[in-house]
Structures are given as C-alpha cells and as structure tokens.
Design goal:
Layout: H1 2-15, H2 17-20, H3 22-32, H4 34-61, H5 72-89
Length: 90
C-alpha cells in the first residue's frame, strides 16, 4: 500500500508543479533547459507510474480494509433504491 501511495505522490506531484509553483518551474526550465527539464519530468513520471502499478497489484493481493461497512447499510441502500428509481422515471 505504501508503494501505491508513494507512486501517487510522485506522479501527481510532478504533474502539479505547473499549478502550484509556476515561478519555480519557469526558473528550473531557464536554468536547466527545456529538454533536460522534460527528461527529468518524464523519468519521475515513469517512476511514479511504475510504483502505482506495482502498489496497486500488491494492494489487490493483500487488501487493507480501511472502513468496514456495517451490514445494516446494505439494507438501507436497497430500501432507498426503490424510491430513487421511481423518482428517476418521474
């Protein structure tokens, strides 16, 4: 699960730099050059994506239940579905 979370942080972090720190990004591109910046961004994105895939596979084999749903909620959901279908058609 930690590999999945780390991969999400790396992948989404690299893609959020433009939104969060546009000035810093522009300064890094000016200092490094556009091709080197894109190479580093691509490498970090691929590492993050690889960790997401690996972590997802690991999480599917060893699931961690974060929130155990109470049994009574299934009955409430089924009961509320009936008026929802009627209101959907109406």
């Amino acid at each position: 699960m930690s590999a999945l979370i780390l991969g999400l942080l790396i992948f989404l972090g690299t893609h959020s730099v433009r939104i969060v720190a546009e000035g810093w990004r522009g300064a890094r591109i000016a200092a490094m050059g556009e091709k080197r910046w894109k190479a580093i961004h691509t490498l970090l994105s691929l590492i993050g994506f690889g960790l997401i895939v690996w972590g997802y596979g690991d999480a599917r084999l060893n699931p961690t239940i974060l929130w155990p749903t109470p049994v009574w909620t299934r009955h409430v959901a089924a009961l509320l579905t009936l008026p929802a279908f009627i209101l959907l058609v109406a």
